[in-house]
Amino acid sequence: TVGRKLSSRGKMTSPSPTHSDSSGSSKHDSNQDSWEIVEGLRGAPASMQEPDRQQGFLLKRRKWPMKGWHKRFFVLEKGILRYAKRDSDLKKGKIHGCIDVGLSVMSIKKKAMCIDLDTEDNIYHLKVKSPELFEEWVSKLRHHRVFRQNEIAMYPHERHLFHPHASSSPSLNDSLRKVSCPSALKCICYLEECESHLLELNLLLKSMEVLHRTYSAPAIIMSNPHSLVHQTSNESKASIPESISEFFDAQEYLLSSSSSENEVSDDDSYISDVSDSVSMDTYSGGGSESVITLTRRRSTLPSPSPTSSVSLWNILRNNIGKDLSKVAMPVQLNEPLNALQRLCEELEYSDLLDMANQTQDPYQRMVYVATFAISAYMSTYHRAGCKPFNPVLGETYECDRPDKGFRFIAEQVSHHPPVSACHADSRNFTFWQDVRWKNKFWGKSMEIVPMGTTHVTLPGFGDHYEWNKVTSCIHNILSGQRWIEHYGEMAIKNTNDDACQCKITFVKAKSWSSGVNEIEGVVTDSEGKVVHTMFGKWHESVFQGVPPSATCIWRANPMPADQEQYYGFTQFAVELNELDSTLRPLLPPTDTRFRPDQRLLEEGNTEGAEEQKQRIEQLQRERRKVLEDNNMTHQPRFFKKSKDDTWVSNNTYWETRRDPGFSKVDFPLLW
Hints:
Elements (H helix, E strand, L loop, with lengths): L4 E2 L5 E2 L11 E3 L8 E3 L15 E8 L7 E9 L2 E5 L2 H5 L5 E4 L4 E5 L4 E5 L4 E5 L3 H24 L15 H9 L3 H31 L69 E4 L2 E4 L20 H5 L17 E5 H7 L5 H6 L5 H14 L11 E3 L6 E6 L4 E9 L4 E8 L3 E12 L4 E6 L1 E6 L4 E6 L2 E5 L7 E12 L5 E7 L11 E8 L4 E8 L3 E4 L6 E5 L15 H6 L19 H7 L3 H24 L9 E3 L5 E3 L3 H6 L13
Parallel strand pairs: 14-15
Antiparallel strand pairs: 1-2, 3-4, 4-9, 5-6, 5-11, 6-7, 7-8, 9-10, 10-11, 12-13, 16-17, 17-18, 18-19, 19-20, 19-21, 20-23, 21-22, 22-24, 23-24, 24-25, 25-26, 26-27, 27-28, 28-29, 30-31
């Protein structure tokens, strides 16, 4: 657990010698209402008296993307916090969720009367209405948390017996106390967990029956027309309406009209496959084909990723609930690419847009555009271990790829808040977006919430597509194997033609399910009838249709054999920071490739990279002070504000590059 780990001897150990005793908290800032980390067990475990039961109504923040709070009845007993809509539901076994407070990172905000519990799988945001009740709940949670941690420390081999997803059935709980055989205890635990899962499924099926009999239930009709909600079988995927998502509240599982409870087999060999229509050495467009001479590009980085000895806990423990974009991080936590280059990575599979611009059917065009939007997340799968460099204000990046048929530029247009803008053009498409991120650390996981809209136009048909990005979350941020998931709904629309829309659901993983990284989507006509269905995994492949006749629309490129040693980079990512002698004189001095700290990290010199990083950050602070002292604002070089307050290209980059050339243009000294 974060903040408290179990040693091999079963004792609780502290990650930092500065922690206070079990009744204390780690304060971030005494001068304002900031988050405080509630400390846990300290010292050797000992026999403890079971704390009193605590129960009552609390406000729980609704799961993303829904906003606001709803009232739930909570019961805290033996270190396990269970909740449901009302007390009677808990007595009937209708549990919405369980939280093991002993295995959670707990933080509080006194003035706002907020309590956050990070369970690694989910983050629970709770709120209390009165100061007296807030103090009462915090006190009880402290005692139950220490009691639970003491119980785990004394009996580490029985830790799974009190899994929070287990049922509260009295008969089973009594059995746990009476049976002494370890194997029998294990069997009882598994049976208890199965009972809980079966209960959830039973509630779900009952609710679906009610919804099918209700005229107001959301109904999506297929274009042939068949109902989108199929019977459950190994060859079909059930669709679950949004209105019954509360039954999976325990796992904060995001459900929608296109969500599924049936998993597609990992073995998709039975599904027909299609090869790419655009090869690496030719580029098709406008009815003609021209041969492109490929530039020889590097196949690996100069140096493998170094071993980091940085204590993340010491850095992050004072930043619970804060935006981490304002927190300085040591260079050992970075990868040798920055956020501008990460935006370019979204174009690795731009051939999908090439195909879209050559497809007459508007619904099939939407399938290709949606698949392109999904493919943008593929490169993140192996990259949860490090973060990209934050661009400094005025930093730029270009990527000219004749082999892929596009050219790309990006610029950091704002520092507070940090905003990155990019633009790419091709014979087959134009792509642009401005993005800002909010990164929040919750004790065991970090949420990355992007804001902004991605745009793509297809000149062949006059289409203009827009879509939002989904929320990302990095788990096990402090210990264990870090992994990333993306969840939420992506809505794609053609602003110039309402003939079709698309909704893609990035399904949130369940802690007890093997299905991870799944996506599901539907393309509908103007009347809401489903024309195409899509499914797959965002890091592997996307299929159109239903098994066994589904067609593979996209499959991820194979990873380099030694990617684990080189930051988990794809081959495309390996090429992004390459700087050869022919390109060097053509770039502006603000291009990311010239950034010394990033270059030194790529070469394996972490000490030199850290020194340069601090110097570059100090230069940025000094430039900002000069602007403030002179009542001036920074003006981006290659982007401008549009009418809707978004950043778009001013179409001067490539013209200036060609004539007079960047060597004859004045630029600020960034590093």
